[in-house]
Amino acid sequence: MFRILFHLISVILLLFSNLSAQDATAIVKKADELMRAKSSYTEMTMKIVKPDWSREMSMKVWALEPDYAIIYITEPARDKGTVTLKRKNEVWNWLPTAQKVIKIPPSMMLQSWMGSDFTNDDLVRESSVIKDYTHKLIGEEKVDGYDCYKIQLTPKPEAGVVWGKIITWIAKDSYLQPRTEYYDEDEFLIKKFIGSNLQKMDGRNIFTHWEMIPEDKPGNKTIMDYTKIEFNIKTDESFYSEQNMKRVR
């Protein structure tokens, strides 16, 4: 009798565990879909903040998920016309002052992109939070006024990702992500990504203010403010070429 009861309890716990994993994956997928589309056009500003200085850039971004993107700097004047091209796992920069296209070598992929808290590697390693990670609901918390699911993402053994784990907070009613934390393989917190300023853009309610805050560099952060987003624009792979880097405006 006790053996049967133990078996039934084990089955129930297993089913509950599988159900929780499926629910966590579904939540992460809905949150991911909120901010993504097959293609997009974005106008935004980026402010790079250091303890003793700061600088601000404006840019336009065309993207064809997940492998292609062009980033065109519109301001300040000294950087205007600078273009970054991403094609799958490769990155190029067009420098109008030098009239040169420069391919970023592997040795420079971990260097800062335009002095920000994002690296060149961040541009190409657009890992799938759905395919590359397993998902586990580890709690429920209130973050910045949002009742959130707290979900841990653990990389699958075969996934080529840099994070030991990711913890994200996803709002129960809207699937917004007010906070995400990134940890290394030793489970040390490396950086935080915080969203705020809810606005409707192209029919979607999304956060338009984002801050990337590195944990090991006090006083540093990169701030991104979206001023315009269009989802599912008409674009194809041919747009994302070295030749087009010199023509986009």
Draw up the topology in text:
Layout: H1 2-35, E1 39-49, E2 54-64, E3 68-75, E4 83-87, E5 90-95, E6 100-103, H2 120-124, E7 133-143, E8 146-155, E9 165-171, E10 179-183, E11 189-201, E12 204-214, E13 221-231, H3 242-245
Antiparallel strand pairs: 1-2, 1-13, 2-3, 3-4, 4-5, 5-6, 7-8, 8-9, 9-10, 10-11, 11-12, 12-13
Descriptive notes:
By secondary structure, this protein is an alpha+beta fold. 17% of the residues lie in helices and 45% in strands. It has 3 helices and 13 strands; from the N terminus they run H-E-E-E-E-E-E-H-E-E-E-E-E-E-E-H. It has helices spanning 2-35, 120-124, 242-245; strands at 39-49, 54-64, 68-75, 83-87, 90-95, 100-103, 133-143, 146-155, 165-171, 179-183, 189-201, 204-214, 221-231. A 13-stranded antiparallel sheet has the order 6-5-4-3-2-1-13-12-11-10-9-8-7. It is globular and about 55 Å long. Residues 1-21 have low confidence and may be disordered.
